[in-house]
Each structure stands twice: as C-alpha cells, then as structure tokens.
Amino acid sequence: MRKGILEYCILSIISRGEIYASDIIGELKKARLLVVEGTLYPLLTRLKNNGLLSYAWKESTSGPPRKYYQITPAGLEVLGKLDTTWEELVFAVQTSMEGRKTSDTGQ
Amino acid sequence: MNRTIIININGIVFHIEEDAYEVLRSYMIDVKKHFGHTIDSHEIVGDIENRIAEMFNERIVQGKKEVITMEDVNDVIAQMGRVSDFETGEPQEAYDEASYDIPPTSGQRKLMRDPDDKVFGGVCSGLGHYFGIESRWIRLILVLLFVFGGTGLLLYIILWIVMPIARTRADRMAMRGEAPNLQNFKRSFQEEMEGLRTNFTGAEEGLRRGLDSAGNFFVKAFVVLAKVIGVLFIVGLCGGLVVLVISIVASFGFFGADADMAMFPLNVIEPDSRNPVLISALVVAVIPFVALVALIIRILFNRPAMGQYTGFILLAAWLVAAGFTTVYATRTINDFREESTVVEEQPLEKQPVYYLSRNDLTVIRLQNDSLDRASRIRHRATIRNRNILEWQSRMRMRIVKVDSLQSPSVTYEYMARGATYELAAERAGKIDYHFQQQGDSLIFDSHFNIAAQELMRDQQLYLKLNIPVGTKLIIDRELRRQISDLPLNQCEANYGYTDGNIPDKTEWIMTESGLKCGIAPPAPAVEESPGAVDTVRADSVIVDTAATNP
Q1: Which of A97, B130, B330, B334 ranks highest by number of CB atoms within 10 Å?
Q2: What 3-state class would DSSP assign to A3?
Q3: Which residues are in the Transcription regulator PadR N-terminal domain (chain A) (predicted)?
C-alpha cells in the first residue's frame, strides 16, 4: 500500500516537469514519505523500465553529469488512472470516517 | 596523520582516508549484493554511486577541504540508508496469486516455507504452493488434525524443521514452480508494479476474477460450504465453552461458595484458596478455547479475530494462571505424600449371638416431640452434607475369626494422608466414628465424620470385628455395603425367597474355617432319595448345626 502510494507520489512529482533525482528526494522528504535515499533508485528504475518515465543526462556545473527524469505519455495515462482511483479511495475513506465520527459523538 | 587513497567514482576523483574507504567499500558491496539478483542492478547501483559522488563533491566544495573523512562517509551512508532500510522501505508485499495469470512453470516445484504468507512458520502456505492449493485449506486440515487426535502439531513441527525457508526471490520462484529465467524475474518485478494498481482496486475483486477465470462454480460452492462448516465449528466451540464454564461454576458452587458446603474436588483445597484456585483453573481451561476460535476465524476469513496485544495479554494470563494452578497442585499433592494408620482396639461384651445393624447417617431421623421441625432438618442436613460423602467416608468392615477362648473385640484402623507422617497420624486420629453395643446388638454407624475445617486427605476407616469360633451373627441386610467380602447374596438365596421377599437379616456362624451361612441351601428336589440329602449334610458341619437349631 505504502509502496504504491510512494510510486504514485513520484509520478506526480515528475509530472510537474523535468526533475533531478535529488530534487525528487527533497520533495519526498518534505512530504515525509521517504526515509532514506537508497529506496528511491530501484523505484525510479522500475518505473522507467515500465515505460512510465524517461530520463536524459545533463551536464552539471559542479560534479558529475546528472540524470533528469521526465514523464512519458504512458506515464501520464497511468497517472490519470491513479488519480481517479485515488479520488475514489479518498471518497471511500472520508465517507467511512464521517460515519465513525458521528457514531463517536453519538455515544 | 592518516593515509589517503585515491578513488574514482563515475569519472570523478576523490581522496579518501583509508578507514573511511573500507567503510564505503563494504557499504557498496552490501548494496551490490542487495540488488545483485535483479537485471536492473547495474543501473540502480550506478545511480547510487552517482549520488554518492555528488554528495561527496558537495561536501568538498562546502567544507573547502580535499579529503573525504570517516565522518563524511558515515553521513552519506546515513542519508542513503542502509541495505536493511531498503528492505523496510520497500517491503516484498504478499500478493494475491489469484489476480495473476498462471505463470510459466518449470514443472518442478520445491517444498519450502513461504515467508510472505505465514501464520507461524509458513509451512502451510509452502505446502499450498507445492500442491497448488490455497494455503488456508491446508491450515484448516492441520487445525482439525490437531483438534481431533493431536497429530497436527507434531506434523507441523516436523515440517517446520524439514522445510527450508524461501529467502531469496529465486527460492520463492522455485517454490511456486516458476522457471528461474530472466523472463520470469522480469515478470516478478512487473507483478510488484502491478501490485500498485491491484492494491487500489482491492484484493476482493482479484479473488473474484481468479475464481471466475477458473470458471468453476464448484470451487465457489466449496468455499461457501467450508465457511459454513467453519462457522458451525466456531459456534460449537463457543457452545462447548459456555457449557464448560457453566458446569464448572455450577458444580463447584463457584458463586458464594460456602465453606460448609464444599464437595469433592473443593474439599481438598484449603477454604481460603478455593476461589483463587477455581478462577485460575477456569482461566487455564477457557483461554485455549478462545485461542482456537480466534485461530479458526483467522484461517477461514483471513482476518485476525483479536489484536496482537489482546493475544499477548491472554497468553500472559494463561501462563500466570497455569503457574498458580501448578504451584497449588504441587503443594496439594505434597500433602498426600505420607500415609499413616492408627489402630485402636475395643473389647466387646461376650454374647453367644450378636445382632449386627447399621445406623445410617445419611438418613435424618426426627424425634416425635421435636417442635421446630424445619430448622432441625436443615441443621442435620448441613452437618451431613459437610461431613459425609457416601463413597468417600464410608466405613468398611471385615469379620475375622479368633479362637473360641479369646474374647470378641472391635479393631479400628484409621488412615489418612499428610505432608509428614506426624501430620497424617494427627489427621487419622481426628476421624470421628461411633459404634455401640447394647447387650447383644451391635450398632455401627454407616459413615465416619471429619471435622468441618479438616481437609479431605484420603481419610479411611476399616473395622475388624473379631468373633470367636462358635458365635452366631445375625447380620442386617443394610450392612452389605460395609461388609464387602461376605457372600450375603448366596446366603439370602438359601432362604429360598418363600414369600417373594429378600430376607432383612441373614444368619451366620463363625466356624474353624471362617464365617459360614447359617441356613442350608433349599433341598434341590423333594422326590430325591434321603441318601442323597444325607451325603449333602455329611459334607458340611454348618448344615448340621443349622438343622439342629430350630
């Protein structure tokens, strides 16, 4: 579940535009989703292998060349589906939570 | 002063201290080993190396230094995360096999325990993979085997020892019978990726799809049937539990247990500890039932019936109760260790004939003039209930021959048990029994009494009635329960049941060869020759004396 959400978030972050791996990490850390960086790389590779992402090497002013990730049309399509599913999920959870709250106050 | 080493990460050169290099090297070996099974490992490790190089670079630029130190390496590793953190960050989620197409199999499956789908050791799920059955059915069979016969537990332990655990991805694929080739490894990855989507759509749908694709109505029917049976089983277990609790509570008089009213299992226990012992025994008996119900619910419906903490609390409660019960049981058993016998002899007034009768303490006799009838009955009943248990405190007696010149007597043998011989003897001495002689009639109480505060410690009483040869005894039929080694029935048969009733009393006589029935068996046939009767009479001395008597 958590892993799925993590991939969903990565896709969302990348869909905003071309981005560098360590910036993705920064975003994820801000969202308190990622604990260590090592977890990110296998996920990125897998998403790339599934054709949802692509990347390009770019020269860096300080240090080695960097991989910049970009979302593919296939990735956008999956992201769209995930958005719908997520909304459904949020609706489902919220609806159940409301029921819980009213039953809590009712007691 | 430290030696430095020059390393090259992705085309960038770093100076690094020797010890820091060792740490970095072992970290990278760990990382490579972790991703070593996958086809993407090269790329992933490359990304990680790249990022490390970048972080080193940042540190050199910011710190205005030239050498990477131990501190830098440790910081970078902490930021990147240990290999063990990768595992927890990316758990190998157990996925529902039903939602995937049948994987290409190598035909050869390995019997291994499945760590992704386990209740205890993953034995059942491993067996399920091996035979291609859903693991819950195997669990159910094992639980039933355990409940009816107890072989399930042993079987499980043996299988647990024998079956290796499927640690690596290759092992898990071999367990499912998938060929360990590149294509399947890739598929395995894709399944994890797919898991992301199926997780949202829900496992229930996946299961339904799997069942539909099997296109088997009978499978569904079987699942429903098994669930119904499971529910019935649980209901049965709960019923058994309720009956158990009620019977314990009812038969031991759990509520407001009156010290005066203690019955057998309770009168072994000291009055003060009766309630704690009862409660702990109840807990010891009930918790396994609850655990079994929870286990069946978990297997059948794939959802835990109780929280982890509840389980721990129940386990702890059971252990405490079992410990208490064991300690108390050991103490009580210890109190039965020594047996002591106290013997007492009482002479009898000599008479040619004794009438033996019984004073039945289990019967309440009322005086005619008693005014307060009800309270009197209640008082007597309480005393009787406290002190007399028909089978536990019954007096037993034997009739023993002594020489005709010796005087008749009664020997009492009081017996009891205790932790030491002294305690046992003291307890035996407290046995209270009444016997009285009124002229030629001997009246025996049917039972002995033990004091109200006295515990049941296997108290017994044997009476020996020492009767000189030639003495006649008229024994009341009521005493047949007390005198077990006398063939009373045979003697009664000799009376012939002329009016259809069993005689109340039988006549016996003490001879040199022991106690004999005083009445001859009825003549076999009236028409028989007198000679035949004579031979019968000549055989036995008793018959002669009996014949001359009336």
Answers
A1: B130
A2: helix
A3: 10-79
Note which residues in 13-52 of chain B have CB less than 8 A from chain A: 31, 35, 38, 40, 43-44, 47-48, 50-51
* pLDDT bracket for residue A107 (50, 70, 90): very low
Q: What is the ipTM of this complex?
A: 0.77
Per the listing, tokens 């993407």 go with B40
| B197 contact residues in A (CB cutoff 8 A) | 4, 81-82, 85
- Cβ atoms of residues B139 and B299 within 8 Å: yes
The burial class, CB within 10 Å (0-12 / 13-18 / 19+), for B182 is exposed
Higher confidence at residue B271 or residue B209?
B271
**B81 to A46: CB separation less than 8 angstroms, yes or no:** no
Cα–Cα distance for residue pair B92/B246, rounded to 1 Å: 48
Instruction: Give the least confident one: A78-82, B54-58, B234-238, B497-501.
Output: B497-501
Q: pLDDT band for position A30 (50/70/90)?
A: confident
Q: Taking residues A82-106, what's their average pLDDT?
A: 77
Element of type H or E holding A82:
helix A73-106
For the segment B66-84, the average pLDDT, to the nearest whole number, is 84
Please report how many Cα atoms fall inside a 13 Å half-sphere around the Cα of residue B95, on the Cβ side.
Answer: 27
Q: Which of residues 172-191 of B touch A (CB under 8 A)?
A: 189-190
Residues of B in contact with A38 (CB under 8 A): 31, 48, 80-83, 85-86, 89
Return d(Cα B123, Cα B114) in angstroms, integer: 7
Question: Chain-wide mean pLDDT for chain B?
Answer: 75
Q: CB-hemisphere CA count at 13 Å for A96?
A: 5
B201: which residues sit within 8 A by CB, 6+ positions away?
Answer: A85
Cβ pair B47:A44 closer than 8 A: yes
pLDDT digits (tens, 9 = 90+) for B135-148: 788 888 888 777 77
As beta bridge partners, residue B13 has B8
The token duo for B61 is: 């630029």
Ordered structural domains, chain A, with CATH? 2-106 (1.10.10.10)
Q: Residue A30 — φ and ψ, nearest 5°?
A: -60, -40
CA dist A12 and A4 (Å) reads: 12
Look at residue B412 and tell me whether its pLDDT is greater than 90: yes
Q: Where are the alpha helices (DSSP H) in B163-216?
A: 169-176, 182-201, 203-214
Rg (CA), chain A: 18
Asked if A49's CB is within 8 angstroms of B89's CB, the reply is no
Among residues 326-345 of chain B, which lie with CB inside 8 Å of chain A? none
